[in-house]
Write a structure and sequence with these properties.
259 residues; alpha+beta; SH3 type barrels; Alpha-Beta Plaits; 3-stranded antiparallel beta sheet; 7 helices; 8 strands; elongated; ion channel
Amino acid sequence: MNEMKALVGQLAGYGQLIASVLVVLFGGMVAVVVLYRLVSRFVKPGGKYGRAIKVFFGAIYAMVLVIAVLIAAQRIGLPVQGLAGPAILIVMVISVVVFFLVPFLPRLPFVLGDMVQIRDVTGIVDAITAYQVVVRSFDGQTIFIPTALVMASPIRNFSAVPHRRIQMDVDVYAEDDIERARSLLLETMDLNANVLAEPAPAVFVTGVTGERASMVAFCWVANEDWFGTRDALWVALSSAFADDDKVRLALPRLDIATS
């Protein structure tokens, strides 16, 4: 019991030290985050200078940590005289090495939380280790893929860009009003709030074969809205053609002749 009281008393004595270190860490990190967001408004993190920006702010984070450690060491009486300069120099040297070395290191083209397709597996990346990549598929399965196999496979990263295109292939009867069909497709896409104005939705006639005219419609949406918007567009499109008397969807049919 006495030992426990002594330990609690010792920890209480370091309360001010812990508070000071937390203030430096928290304040420094908040300042770096705010500065990073300000810089990101003018220089895109994924653009030409993206790597330099990440290394620069990574170095600042490391310096904040070094300062916090030095403050703690000084408060508890450790000799830190003359260590600040070498510590900051080491951080700068490591940052320069990382800046020039990172492009030559093999790395996977996705991060945690990205939606990817690796071979025939599509889902959200849950974990990445040196030995395996864990993907959670949309039907609730957890799939473990060896990292070596991932590196040797074609990979689709649906989260790599903010926007994704929806494509709808539609057949109408060639004898119907094709321009009306084009207008219905454009109206359906324009009325959906998730469809982006730029790039603008577009509809093209891709060919006429027999009694069918084939059309393709394109529009762009935010990545996270892709599945829901595609579903909503098909439902709205089906209703629009069903309510129109000038154009019909050329659906597959089976003709049975009786003799």
